[in-house]
Sequence to fold (962 residues):
Amino acid sequence: MSFLPYAVAAWLFLVGLYGIVTSRNLIHLVVCLTVVQSSTYVLLLAVGYREGAAAPIYADIPTSRPVVDPVVATLTLTDVVVEATVAALLLSLAVQAHRRFGTLDPDELGALRG
Amino acid sequence: MSVFGLGAAGTAALLVWGLAGLPSFGDFEGAYGQLLAHLTVPERHATSAVAVSTFDFRGLDTLGEEFILFTAAVGVLVLLRGQRADETVAAEPMHPRRPTADSRTLRSIATALAAPVLVLGAYVVSHGHLTPGGGFQGGVILMTAFLLVYLAGSHLHLAAIRPLSAMEGAEGVGAAGFALIGVGGIILAGAFLENFLGFGTTGNLVSGGVVPLLNVSVGIEVMGAILVIVGELLDQRFLVRKGDR
Amino acid sequence: METAPLAVAIPLLGAGGLAAVATRLGRAGAEAVALAAAVAVTALCVALLVRTGSGLEVYWFGGWEPRAGTAIGVSFAVDAIGAGLATLVSALMIAALVVMWRYRETEAPHFQILMLLFLAGMVGFCLSGDLFNLFVFFELMSVAAFALAGFKVEEDEAVEGSLNFAVTNTIGSFLVLTGIALVYGRTGTLNLAQMGGALEAHSVDGLVVMAFALLAAGFLVKAAVVPFHFWLADAYAVAPTPVCLLFAGAMSELGLYAVARIWFDCFAGAFGPEADSLRLVLIVAGSLTALLGAGMCLAQDHLKRLLAFATIAYVGVFLIGLGLLTAEGIAGAAIYVVADGLGKAALFATVAIIQHRRRRVSELALRGQGRALPFTGALLALGALSFAALPPFGTFLGKSMLEDELVATGYGAVIAVLIATSALTAGAVLRVIARVFLGWGPAADRPRATEEETKPEEEGAPDSTPAVMFVPAALLLAAALAIGLIPGTTEAFRTAAERFVDGPAYGRAVLDGVSPTGLATASSYSAPAHSYLYAALGLLGAACAAAISLFVPGGRWLRTPARLLGSAGTALRGLHSGHVGDYVAWLVLGVALLGGSFALALT
Fold:
């Protein structure tokens, strides 16, 4: 049971990669990339969790109360912003691909060879 | 495909092997996180350990992250501008006055929500050092207020209230603002991004030193950058593609 | 004392400022701001380089010094190798900005903004001493690079190239992030120095091996080691040529730098006794990359793809140097990186000149068209000699140091790989000179590469090469020569390498503030006689390779081996399909292979 969150992270990672490899639509490909991203979020947050601890906000709890690790929250926050921006760039490229090639199918793009 | 199957099987096995070494879920004893959590209130008089961790202890990471968002917004502008050269562009967007949403209920609710969401966004941004939230989260909520205007009205309304240059200016100011505060740390306190303002009383809005200011700076930048991105993508609907009509 | 943060803050402020004033500055103003920032950063990095010498300079952000040996804030830990790389990066940025001035009209300051952000990312990456901070700057560098690669978005291939680049490198960064999560779960810290101490204190198990494997795999995707390399040729082919100058000279080497940094400062202590087996894995991976890159390089028709595969080949060579896991290997690789980076940048600048004057980038289509450009041809010839690692180029020094160290560690046979790489890559450039500038070779071949046109600023091809394009190329080649000629460089590099590999001293310097004890200045290196023999062999090989690839389509006497090589070549070229799903499939297989071989080597 205690391994389950990590297993979920590994599963998301691989399933997202499978989606990317077999994708027939660029938008679908970008969303699969976000699935792979979420695997890293799950992993980071699962690593920092402490049983029975509170959220790391001391507004209404005494400072002596154990809290979960705030550093992984910071890492995940940074990670979310970074990967969202990459997704935005990729989606713009998908839009451009549709305009240039008339299709969103990666198999049909084929301008670069060798 | 077989290449992938082989690779995936191998990677899966290796990942499980590696992950097995992690402490059980819930047993993490990392000293670094605990140290930071315990320093938050006494040293910075702020109550959100995550916010202080993001903007103070590890402020450099957040500076970088903010600039990555900025880069992506500029990148989207660059990547989506190409078609203006070789495709006919309507002198004005086609049907700009056509309402975005067909349902009156949707338009009414969106109109009603736009201003409260703006206030909510401002609240989340300014209270980031006290409660969950902060510049990034609040910036996105602020951006949503503008999108609600778009939903409530039509494309033209959005273009009127978020002229591209103003949004670019906003994100530039927000991004540079963070870096300037960092430089202020050098001048006023001794190290880049060092917290140089008074820390105030715990639990008050004015506490945590520069953390609230950084939150505001980030909030402006995030709002500007995401509006640029979303606006550019929305504009794509209205450009005439070559071969159409 | 604030040199290190300012080196990153200045380009960031420049970029933000340019966006805030947007189009009011005009092109000249934006260019001036960008150039000023790049020059300032170069000056700061040189100052850092001079100051660090054989020591280590540590800077703690936010004023958070470590308490009781525990790092709290984020640190920059600068040693000579890091400062040196940062200097190379910023110098190449100046060259790229200058060459771009006439290469292409850029409207609005977006290009300059992206370049400044790219600079900030790369410099921060070289200077950082914290693993997550390394990741953040890695991402900044990557996102700017994605946008720059797709800059010529009006061309169809730019979309595909940028897409392949972005998807593969983003998966690489997920690998890095997963590695970070694993190592954080074990050590509870993100500071490189502290991590080293913590890992050394615990026994090694699957987690530590996989953490290193994932981190290495992610960084090696950026470095384009086989089989993670497929994206590089596509990205280089479509990016504006001055940007390729930066990619080739600086960006690809940074991935290797990161792997070396985390090995020596975090994992070497934990894996100490197993280092020999890891050496084998890294040298094999490097050799594979070098040979594949060199072979594909020779087979290319598109000038930029040719140089892209040459870049991959040299990344393989650098990985071999790094894989030796010794100070001498690092020193040789470092000299080679600097000299080769300058040489490759000069070659890309020369290709930019050819594109500017002749509007074409396909070697076969350019046949004979270079006759009126003798100086450009001369530059290209010097670049070929730099590839061939001939004395007195700096590449010769680097190559001979690596050859000696390979023999010293028992891998003498790998010298053949080094010679073959130099021969094939130099041969490719020599063939280009022969075909384009001398008009040799059969005329009947169809150009295989797609035509890439730069947007003409005036109608027709310009009559003369603008100085802003020629001078940087010449200066870069002069610098590549200078590395080999200036006395004292080998001592400096060796001292820097000794400092780089000393993980425990790094840890003490960062956490306890103990300045590392001064190192005795290393002895100077003079290449032994057999190095000259190898260099001569390399040149001979280059000439043969050039001749064979120039004439073989019509030749009858090499039919069988040519056909065998040809079909293998065609199969290999078929793998480089441009389809992103294929690239990712190979990436995943590569991760499995790398992780598996690390597992076998390190447990």
Summary: Chain A touches chain B through 52 residues (CB under 8 Å). The mean pLDDT of chain A is 85. Chain A has one domain: 4-109.
